[in-house]
TrEMBL record:
Residues 1054-1168 form a coiled coil. This is Gram-positive cocci surface proteins LPxTG domain-containing protein. Residues 80-109, 132-260, 309-476, 793-820 are annotated as: Disordered. The chain crosses the membrane at residues 1254-1271. SUPFAM superfamilies: Tropomyosin. One of its GO terms (biological process) is negative regulation of transcription by RNA polymerase II. Residues 1-24 form the signal peptide. GO terms for molecular function: promoter-specific chromatin binding. Residues 132-188, 209-256, 325-340, 347-358, 367-383, 422-439, 803-820 have a biased composition (Basic and acidic residues). Keywords: Coiled coil, Membrane, Signal, Transmembrane, Transmembrane helix. NCBIfam families: Surf_Exclu_PgrA. Residues 384-405, 456-467 have a biased composition (Polar residues). It comes from the Bacteria.
Length: 1276
């Protein structure tokens, strides 16, 4: 009833309300569910924006006095968007102005530093200091000359060492060529042995005859191919010859035409000079003729005298100018030489300082970003603190008035409460009787509800316990199975045979690594053979027997039955191993190799990654595709085909599939089926690892080094193991180490010592790209898993026991709770059948307390307002405390960020200052133009002017002398002048004609030269065909020789088919002898290559040592040059201290003026922004006000009579009521404060303009007294 009464009250107030305006400062003070009435503001409008119809805007507050239309709303939105854009544009302009001001301030700071430096430099510029600096420069230059001499010697030594190393590389290349050729011979000998064996065994007749026929056919094909290649070579030679002749002719023509064009170019330059001289001579002759005519006519005396005097004065001046220009030219040459030297040294220092500046700039950028974020956080924390304090102050200011209002209502409530007590006592007895019954019902109802909840709880627990028990049982069984499986796996792996090297072998191996002499090598081999032969790691000689089925000898077993290898009988396709099979072989190789590394070095480095698995898979396929005999050795082309961008091969060990393929002579099922088992491939891995140790002396233990390492490992290395099987039945087991594709050496500087050294950089390992794959042979990991599995098993057993006990308990508790619920329900049903007296007593109490209701309602409202205000104050105090804490943290963070920024900025400033000084020096040096060209030009001009002045003076004096000559002489002079004039005209005409002819000739030569050069370029772009044709012929010839050799051998084999047994045995013996001979040669060649490779390593080490010395000298020279630049800069500043000081003062004054103008510009832009922000505030307030008024117009009537919100009663101020005009139009008025965070409107109550509203208002007050009942407990 309370809620219903409040609705009635609000409706009454809403109907009775007249005209109101919500002030801007009242928007934030008003509670969300309250309406506040006030008088409309009469302040005059003052805004720069356009005010739409029916809106009053003043200082960020917009009041709507007329219902707006959609057009008015759209117009207000447009005005708002325009002001928003203006603010955005002006903010950008202000940021630009501030950036310009910051730049100008930086210039002032820099200029001030430069000025102080110039003043200090001026004080230091004493003759003694200048002389001392010059001496230091001379000393540094002398040191540089010595170091450069040493550097030249070091560079020569490096070149010589590199030459020796390259020569040794060529030797090794030749060794490899010989080995490749010899391996072909070995392969041929092996085939001969196999053929002889077949002849002796009486098998393979059809194959031998077929081979003879195929060989004969192959010879015919190869002969035809060779003939075609010869013909192609002849055609290529002819075409290349024609091209060469044409190119030779074109080159000769180019040479001739180039010479002709150079000659014509010189002739053209001479012709131009002659034409200019002729033109000048013509002008002079014309002038002399006019002078002679004047002399003869008796005129021009004054002019001649004046000309003589002027010529004399001009001659004296040009002579002095020439002398001065000569002195300036000498000084200019000396100054340019000094500038060039200083500029060269300064640029060298500049390069180092640019790198340092870039590094510090990157650090500064990061620090600035952190400091900027810290400042933003601090600013936000400050704003939050101010906002929290403001909110708290606003709430606390209302506290006193709210308390007084509550006390007034309490007094009124107490008076009316006394009147109510007597009526309550009369009903006390009836209430107590009903209360007892109600209490019993309530207790039983509560008990029933509790027991129902208990039944639900026990039922749910029973279901949950049943499910948990079943799950725990399954977990127990799974844990037991996991423990059993791990035990079996660990037992199987722990029994694997892993070779264990004795200590004497390990010591001998390390001794050989330290000194690879023959003595140490043989000693190591002796110890290895002693350890291995007949040991538990030696399978022994294969046990063989003849198989009639296969008509060949087969291996039936091995003497040593105790060696344990991984057992996996799954089938392997030798032409297509899967990734999992390759990973398993790789992991087994890593298991063996890492154990050997641990024995030798105490740790290991091999891992298997998905990249190493994929890489070796692709490489093995490439080996198979190349289909080369085993004797061809390692294939660089196949190793390059890893197919990955992340890794590349770094080393390969390789072994022949002896056991799998029956050692070449015994029967092998794998050869026929091209299938095997994983167990067979595991055997090949084991045999290869043993062979790399026990059968590696001929390779100087290179395979052993690659497997075990030459020093203790420090970084991981990805490896892979895989098998390749060629179409010709050659099987290889490959073991390859991988490095990152971008692995390289970097020459870096040690920041502590200052020395440079090489560092191996490999992102594949350094950046953690290489992810080790889990090994199936790591028992330590399995044992950890077993321990965890046992713990999990124990936990599962414990959990199962607990779950079973829980299930039993849940069943018992569910039975008990169900029985108790039945008993309580029966008692409650019986009690509720008794009639209830409470409704009658309640009605009687409401009548007695009717006069009390109004006072209680008013008091509750006042108390609620006070409680809300106190809660609001407490909340805002907590918010203020939180804001202060956040502000403290933000302040500390900002101080730290600022400190870090200042530190980084100082480092950057120092780097930039050093760079700026050097760049300034470079700029100054480069800005100073070379003085020599200008001085030379001035001197040449002065010299020419002097010569012209001498000629002029001579002629002027002659003219003056002629004034006194007789008529005949004067006439003679005139005739001579005329003759000279005619000669000058003829010479000028001839010179111009010659210039035209020479120009045409030169242009013709240039055109011919351009055409010839285009021809040469075209011919050079055509590749010679002879080399490729010759290569094709050579290959065809080699193939023909091989085919003929094959045919001879095949025919010999056919001939041997019918030979007697003794002859066949001799053929087989000879073939084996030949094979042994070729194998011996091959072994000797490989031994020689190993020796040559060792020598190459020595020479490479020598190159690296010499390069290190060379680099050290370069570093010393760099430091000396840096010092020289500094000294030369100092000398220049000391010698020109006055000029630099004047320049610095001028630069400082200009910077100060520029900064002053920038500050004025910032002030102007800030003032503009302030005005625009006020406009934006006004425009936003106007738009939000008209939009809200427009939206609320349509729903106004329904909101008045069907208020859906639970409002509180509003008390009207009588004085305010009187101030509201009853004749105000029926318009809603909205007021928005533009300076608030959100422009939320408070709707005023409408005014109908009718006096009946006051009557309805009074009726509403009367209605509120019938709506609320309050219990005694609540009243107390």
């Amino acid at each position: 009833m309370k809620k219903k009464t409040i609705k009635a009250t609000v409706s009454a107030v809403s109907i009775a309300a007249g005209f109101s305006v919500v002030q801007a400062d009242e928007v934030t003070a008003t509670q969300p569910n309250e309406s506040t009435l006030s008088v409309e503001s009469t302040s005059p409008s003052s805004t720069n924006i356009k005010q739409v119809d029916g809106v009053f805007v003043h200082n960020g507050i917009a009041t709507v006095t007329k219902t707006p239309t959609s057009e008015v709303v759209e117009e207000a939105r447009t005005i708002k968007e325009e002001t928003d854009q203006s603010v955005s544009n002006q903010e950008s302009a202000l940021e630009n102005a501030k950036a310009s001001e910051a730049t100008a301030a930086s210039k002032v700071s820099d200029a001030n530093v430069d000025l102080k430096n110039a003043e200090a430099n001026k004080e230091l510029a004493t003759p003694e200091k200048i002389e001392k600096t010059k001496n230091e420069i001379s000393e540094v230059k002398a040191d540089i000359e010595k170091k450069e001499t040493s550097l030249k010697d070091a560079s020569d030594k490096v070149l010589e060492a590199e030459k020796e190393r390259n020569q040794q590389s060529e030797v090794i290349k030749k060794d490899q060529d010989k080995i490749s050729e010899q391996e072909k011979k070995v392969s041929t000998a092996e085939e001969a042995v196999a053929t002889a064996q077949k002849n002796l065994d009486g098998t393979g007749a059809s194959e031998i005859i077929a081979e003879r026929d195929k060989a004969k056919s192959d010879v015919s094909e190869k002969e035809s191919a060779e003939e075609a290649a010869k013909k192609a070579l002849e055609n290529a030679i002819s075409e290349d010859k024609n091209k060469a002749e044409e190119l030779s002719k074109a080159s000769a023509d180019e040479k001739t035409q180039l010479s002709a064009s150079q000659v014509s170019a010189k002739q053209l330059a001479d012709a131009k000079k002659v034409a200019e001289e002729a033109a000048n001579a013509l002008v002079k002759a014309q002038k002399e003729k006019e002078t002679a005519q004047k002399v003869l006519d008796g005129t021009g005396v004054e002019e001649i005298l004046a000309e003589r005097d002027a010529a004399k004065k001009n001659l004296d001046a040009t002579t002095a100018t020439e002398n001065t220009a000569k002195q300036e030219l000498d000084r200019a040459k000396e100054a340019d030489d000094k500038k060039a030297t200083a500029l060269k040294n300064a640029k060298s220092v500049e390069a180092d300082q640019i790198k340092k500046s870039q590094e510090t700039a990157a650090n500064l950028s990061s620090a600035e970003e952190k400091q900027k974020q810290a400042q933003e956080n601090l600013k936000k924390a400050q704003e939050n603190k101010v906002s929290a304090q403001s909110n708290l102050d606003a709430s606390e200011s209302q506290l006193a008035q709210t308390i007084a209002n509550r006390d007034s209502k309490a007094n009124d409530l107490a008076n009316k409460q006394n009147s109510k007590i007597s009526a309550e006592e009369e009903l006390k007895t009836a209430k107590e009787n009903d209360a007892k019954k109600a209490s019993e019902i309530s207790a039983l109802t509560t008990k029933k509800n509790q027991e129902e909840a208990k039944v639900n709880e026990t039922s749910n627990e029973l279901a949950s316990a049943t499910s948990a028990a079943q799950e725990a049982k399954e977990n127990k069984e799974k844990a037991g199975q996991a423990v059993e499986t791990l035990n079996k796996q660990i037992a199987a792996i722990k029994n694997l045979t892993i070779p264990q090297l004795p200590q004497d072998v390990i010591d001998a191996y390390k001794a050989y690594l330290a000194d690879d002499s023959d003595a140490n090598k043989n000693a190591l081999n002796d110890l290895i053979q002693k350890w291995f032969t007949g040991s538990k790691y030696d399978f022994g000689t294969p046990e063989t027997e003849y198989s009639p089925e296969h008509q060949n000898i087969v291996i039936k077993g091995w003497p040593n039955k105790d060696i344990v290898l991984p057992i996996d009988d799954s089938e392997v396709d030798l032409d297509n191993l899967t990734d999992k099979q390759i990973e398993a072989l790789s992991q087994y190789y890593v298991l063996l190799a890492n154990n050997l590394q641990d024995q030798v070095w105490g740790n290991h480095d091999f891992i298997v990654t998905k990249e190493s698995v994929q890489g070796i898979k692709n490489i093995a396929k490439a080996y198979a595709d190349e289909n080369k005999p085993y004797g061809s050795g390692h294939s660089d082309s196949a190793l390059a085909k890893d197919g990955l961008e992340s890794i590349a091969w770094a080393g390969e060990n390789m072994s022949f599939n002896n056991t799998l393929l029956g050692y070449g002579g015994y029967y092998s099922e794998a050869k026929e089926t091209r299938k095997a088992t994983m167990s067979q491939l595991y055997r090949e891995v084991y045999d290869a690892v043993i062979s790399f140790i026990t059968n590696d002396v001929h390779a100087y233990f290179g395979h052993m080094k690659l497997m075990i390492g030459e020093k203790a490992p420090t970084k991981t290395c990805a490896v892979g193991a895989a098998n390749s099987f060629t179409a010709n039945g050659v099987g290889r087991m490959h073991f390859i180490k991988f490095k990152g594709q971008d692995a390289h050496l970097e020459y870096v500087k040690d920041e502590q010592t200052g020395e440079y050294h090489f560092v191996n950089v490999d992102d594949y390992y350094d950046k953690g790209i290489a992810k080790p794959l889990a090994t199936p042979f790591d028992t330590s990991k399995m044992e950890d898993e077993l321990t965890a599995a046992k713990a999990k098993q124990t936990a599962a057993n414990t959990a199962n026991d607990s779950a079973q006990k829980r299930l039993e308990k849940a069943k018992s508790e569910n039975d008990s709770s169900t029985k108790a619920l039945k008993e309580t329900t029966a008692k409650l049903d019986a009690l509720e059948a008794t009639p209830d007296q409470t409704p009658a007593a309640t009605i009687k109490l409401e009548n007695a307390t009717q006069n009390y209701n109004e006072a209680q309602t008013q008091f509750n409202k006042a108390q609620s307002a006070l409680d809300q205000l106190n809660a609001d104050i407490q909340s805002k105090r907590q918010s203020l405390a939180s804001a202060k804490d956040n502000l403290d943290q933000a302040t500390k963070a900002e101080v730290k960020a600022k400190s870090d920024l200042e530190k980084t900025k100082l480092e950057n400033q120092n780097a930039n200052q050093n760079l700026k000084q050097t760049q300034k020096l470079v700029e100054e040096l480069m800005s100073v133009p070379d003085q020599t060209p200008s001085a030379q030009k001035k001197y040449d001009t002065a010299k020419q002017l002097k010569e012209e002045a001498e000629t002029r003076y001579t002629k002027a004096q002659t003219a003056l002398d002629n004034l006194n000559a007789d008529l005949k002489v004067k006439q003679k002079a005139l005739e001579t002048a005329k003759e000279e004039l005619e000669k000058a005209k003829i010479a000028d005409k001839t010179a111009r004609k010659n210039l035209d002819e020479v120009t045409k000739i030169h242009e013709k030569h240039l055109a011919a030269l351009t055409t010839t050069r285009q021809t040469i370029a075209r011919l050079n772009s055509i590749s010679d065909k002879t080399p490729l044709a010759q290569k094709n012929l050579d290959e065809a010839s080699q193939k023909l020789i091989a085919a003929k050799t094959r045919y001879v051998k095949a025919q010999t084999a056919v001939d041997n088919l019918n030979a007697d047994i003794q002859t066949k045995q001799k053929v087989l013996a000879d073939a084996r002898a030949e094979l042994d001979k070729e194998l011996k040669v091959l072994s000797d060649l490989k031994a020689k290559k190993a020796t040559d490779e060792a020598e190459l390593r020595n020479r490479q080490n020598k190159v690296e040592e010499l390069k290190a010395k060379e680099s050290q000298i370069k570093n010393e020279i760099s430091k000396l040059k840096t010092n020289l630049v500094a000294l030369e800069t100092l000398l220049d500043h000391l010698e020109n201290a006055d000029a630099y000081l004047m320049k610095a003062k001028g630069a400082y004054d200009n910077a100060v003026e520029e900064h002053r103008l920038a500050l004025e510009n910032v002030a102007r832009e800030e003032a503009k922004l302030k005005t625009l922000l006020q406009d934006q505030l006004d425009a936003t307030a106007q738009y939000e006000a008209v939009r809200e008024a427009y939206l609320n117009t349509r729903t106004r009537q329904s909101e008045v009579f069907n208020d859906k919100v639970d409002h509180k009663m509003i008390s009207l101020n009588p004085a305010l009521e009187k101030s509201i005009s009853e004749n105000t139009s029926n318009e809603q008025v909205y007021s928005y404060a533009g300076n608030q965070a959100k422009y939320a409107a408070n709707r005023a109550l409408p005014n109908t303009g009718s006096i009946e509203n006051w009557l309805v208002f009074a009726m509403g007050i009367v209605l509120c007294s019938f709506g609320i009942s309050v219990s005694r407990k609540q009243r107390d």
